[in-house]
Specification:
It is built from 13 helices and 12 strands. With about 325 residues, it is an alpha/beta fold. Keywords: DNA-binding, Transcription, Transcription regulation.
Length: about 325
């Protein structure tokens, strides 16, 4: 025989279930993106609406379920116990909704704007082929392409500014889905007339004299200084440039050596890779998006990026 307490709990659960049945996908999406991005303002930008609308959705949702979802006055926003339970359901429900959509949605009929962020290595190497393939496969999708350094592109992905990132992998990032794009080789490169017929010692002295460096926050910037520290090399002169193509041109003109992807500049007879030890490990690249993505189009476009990637397949090689 049930006690009065048990009866009250069962009635409460039935009422809460009825309230959940009245929730709409917009409520769940709004709560999820506030939780994921850390603020009402960021969620409003991600969902292409205003902050007052976001606040109204949350107030409406909390009234329907009879529980407070976010603790008031906390920065970043913090979930209540009821909020944590709701987000768990929201993630699964929204993921299933979009999985169902992906099964029946024809890429030719998909619409909307997808924001794609990438590094300059991708932009110079195979972004054009990828873009043309998306246009053919998904003609009603608008691509918004943003080219930036690795660190900023990851930040934009995590704060919801972009939907998909084509970047060197960063194993520290969690709650993202990754599709491997292969690996890109990197090496010190300089003007062919300076590099040819040099001994190992002369090559190291060439590196020591003048380095053309990409901007802080780029993956190549981090890798070059890690290598220099290992060799205990302090360059006599550093010249910084935020554009890879310009950096390569400066190297061609003999202004210094630069860490670049040799495959990208292999057709330039004026630029040649330096033979040094230890060699650099190649960079793993990924097409990555937040988990769950809540858009079948994002996953489809990520797979088109994989199909069009010009990077080497297989494991990273030194």
């Amino acid at each position: 025989m049930l006690s009065l307490a048990h009866t009250e709990i069962r009635i409460f659960d039935m009422r809460r279930s009825a309230a959940m049945m009245r929730l709409e996908f917009r409520h769940l999406e709004t709560a999820y993106w506030i939780y994921r991005l850390g603020s009402y303002g960021a969620a409003a930008e991600r969902l292409n609406t205003t902050q007052p609308n976001i606040s109204m959705r949350i107030a409406d949702m909390e009234e329907r379920i009879g529980s407070v979802v976010f603790q008031r006055g906390k920065r970043p926003v913090t979930l209540t116990a009821a909020g944590r339970e709701l987000i768990g359901y929201a993630e699964r429900i929204l993921a299933l909704r979009d999985e169902l959509s992906s099964v029946f949605e024809d890429g030719q009929e998909a619409t909307g704007r997808i924001r794609v962020g990438c590094t300059e290595t991708v932009a110079l190497w195979w972004l054009a082929d990828f873009t043309l393939d998306v246009q053919r496969a998904m003609p009603n999708i608008e691509l918004d392409i943003d080219v930036d350094i690795t660190e900023k592109t990851w930040d934009k992905l995590c704060n919801g500014t972009i939907d998909l990132a084509l970047v060197p992998d960063d194993q520290l990032q969690e709650r993202v889905i990754r599709h491997s794009l292969g690996h890109a080789s990197i090496a010190w490169m300089g003007a062919a007339e300076l590099v040819q017929t040099r001994s190992t010692l002369e090559t190291m002295n060439l590196i020591r004299r003048s380095i053309l460096s990409l901007s802080p926050g780029s993956r190549l910037y981090a890798d070059q200084f890690r290598w220099l520290d290992m060799q205990d090399i302090r360059p006599d002169r550093l010249t910084y440039c935020n554009t890879m193509s310009v950096t390569a041109r400066l190297a061609c003109e003999g202004a210094g050596v630069a860490l670049l992807p040799p495959d990208l500049f292999s057709d330039d007879s004026q630029l040649q890779a330096l033979k040094v030890q230890p060699a650099f490990a190649s960079l793993p690249f990924v097409a990555t998006y937040l988990s769950p993505a809540f858009s079948p189009s994002v996953e489809r476009i990520a797979k088109l990026a994989v199909a069009n990637s010009g990077f080497h397949l297989g494991e990273s090689q030194p």
